Amino acid sequence: MFRKTLALIMTLCLCLTALAAQAAVTADGALPIVDEPAELTIWASIPGGMDDYTNNATTKWFEEKTGVHVNWIEVANAEAATLFNTSIASGDFPDIYCRGGSGAEVLQYAEDGVIIPLNDLIEEYGYYLKQRLEEMPEVREAITAPDGNIYGFPRISYNLYGASPNKLWVYKEWLERYMEETGAEQPNTAEELEAMLLFFRDNDMNGNGDTTDEIVMTGQYNYGFDGGNPVYYLLNAFTYVPSFNGYFYINDDGEYTTEVMSDEMREGLRYANRLYEEGLIAEETFVQDLVTFRSLTTTTKDKVIVATAAAPYPFRLLTLQSGVENAVEFTDYECLEPLQRADGTTVTPGVNSGIYNIGTTGMITTACENPEVAMRWMDFFYSDEVIQYLNWGGEEGSGWEWQDVPSIGGDEKAVVSLIDATTRNAIWNPDFVGCRWTTEDTILQQADANDEVSLRVKYGKMYLQYTKFENRPTCIWCTDMDLAAEYSELHTLINDYITTSINEFVLGIRDVDSDADWQEYISTLEDMDCQRYIEVAEEYYFG
Prior knowledge:
By secondary structure, this protein is α/β, with parallel strands linked by helices. The protein contains 21 helices and 17 strands.
């Protein structure tokens, strides 16, 4: 009798709690999202170029719209991983972690009682999110864990411009001079590229009387794997060498494989080494960070020294200089097409399996006393109003407006930004770590102003026709923690060794022409249990 009475009381309490929760938020789609002012505590890292969240214009706008005040726990980007783990271990959780994780990590957070499943909250309070998931059902499928639960909020990015990152950019004025004086066209093969680079080396391109100060080809090491290292652009003129997630990929037969031990790879390394020995690839490429790299490209037009450089898109290539007279701009560099191989084909690696990046970021914790408020606050991200605000730079009329100018997508009307592109503390983008829903239309509706966004799309489309995606699943839900750990260990060990070997062959530390050196490289990979790594990876990705 006592148990029945207790169960009845608990059920009644739960019902009253549910009623109270429903009363705490307003009707679907209504603003503010709460009947009375509410607060949430959110943990988030601060993106580069932004001072903080607390005083950011977007934060204030969000609070005015939603009626929810956020107490931010702000951490530096560089320390985010360490401090996140520290926060998890402390047991003192915020209401929301503005962060994602691997499938295995997310499942572990759920098992450890850190985060809650979102399915019921989405169903009851996810007014905008449900609409988005209906528009793109593949997103729901990707973010749903094997146990049927959704634990994180989806982050969708139209990534045409970053889908094929191994691009090479050439200073346009120097390219035009090369073509005019030699009668050559833009380089289309490895041999033609080498001829152009030699011309840049030998002809005092900046006209300052110093024939040694031009940097013929450069890049940067810390973002080298996603388009910052020109060596990968060169290697793909010989064989398929993705670098962003390691050097392995999933072929059309579903096999996890790599080309890094092939004869074609060795030929590509010979070519890259020759360019280095000829003084065409700057040694600093292998050690300099992004800041140092950009300091070389971000100049005025009378002080240009960089002929060609690797970067996935213009913003990575150089920094836009507002108010600087005669400054080098994005349009002063032209993106070269991928190089054609000896067999007549042209192939460049593509990230994952398509032009959309799909992931999760934002998890509601078990410490959250008002999960329905947290859900509605996160749901607001998927409204047209917020999508436009974050992607187009604020509110209509002050941040952007419609004008009768051509759009990137070819329409007669387009969205035109009204804010200074160098002012990055006004909005959370471009590096906001939280939720985001950016589709093709969001990008293509913007004005074709020959600006950074337009150039990203233009050259992204140019590369897409040659792109072969590495075919990894966007979201990976490996529930075997031991297998995930083994995959991670082997993946790091083997791919780090390949990276080191590529650098050493290019720099001449190892002799690519030596059969002994090449065989030692192959044998070491085999001894690292490369075959076991392939077996583990196939199970890790596909179960």
